# Entry
Amino acid sequence: MNISIKDKNDIEKLRNAGQLAANVLNMITEHVKPGISTGKLDDICHDFIVNEQKAIPANIGYNGYEKTSCISVNQVICHGIPNQNKILKDNDIVNIDVTVLKDDWYGDTSKMFLVGKTQPHNEKLVTVTQECLYKAIEIAKPGITLGDIGHVIQTHAEKNHYSVVEDYCGHGIGKVYHEDPQVLHFGKPGTGIELVEGMCFTIEPMINQGTKYTKILSDGWTVETKDGRNSAQWEHTIAITSNGCDVLTKRDEERFL
# Structure
């Protein structure tokens, strides 16, 4: 395993890309409402990244992927392909995942959205999943292990009677989109790689209302829950500092991070 350790200059470049990605999510928020298609949302994100941010939508061309964002609705766990025929409706829950490439550095983040009138069980899933991410960020610092991060996520999810997707995980990031280490969202305390200052990676828990099991659709990208129940995901990119971590993709409403 080859884990890249970033210096302060590297982290600032990673932060710049991360803030561009965060700003895409800030921008798209007002557009996420009943009646819009996921394809239209993707078009808006593309135009903003290219024309306003003068950056590159990193997903286009990645392993043959053709869209700017991944937009995952309801039972779709991740890698949902935007489609002009997929229209959002009341009570949908939606994850929008964007990665921006700027000056050769990648910024990767995602956010959940509640569409229109939302039922309490869907709102709870989205809230608890965000809490899982925040609890992981809260403990991230030199000396703890990736197992500690996975454990705090798994414990909070299962306490709320949800399951943690095990087939997909977070990842190191920098000038390479996906690099070591893999960041699992389940685990045992004190196991796995020990965190050190300068490590940069994403934490992106995928939490299901039902079982943890997944299936990939015939398009080769879209991942759904095997039982058809809903799933939620939130993602941030962090850098490990001398005494904690720095959230490089925090949005306007997250100044407390």
Observations:
- Residues 8-249 form a domain with the Creatine Amidinohydrolase fold (CATH 3.90.230.10).
- The first strand starts at residue 56 and ends at 57.
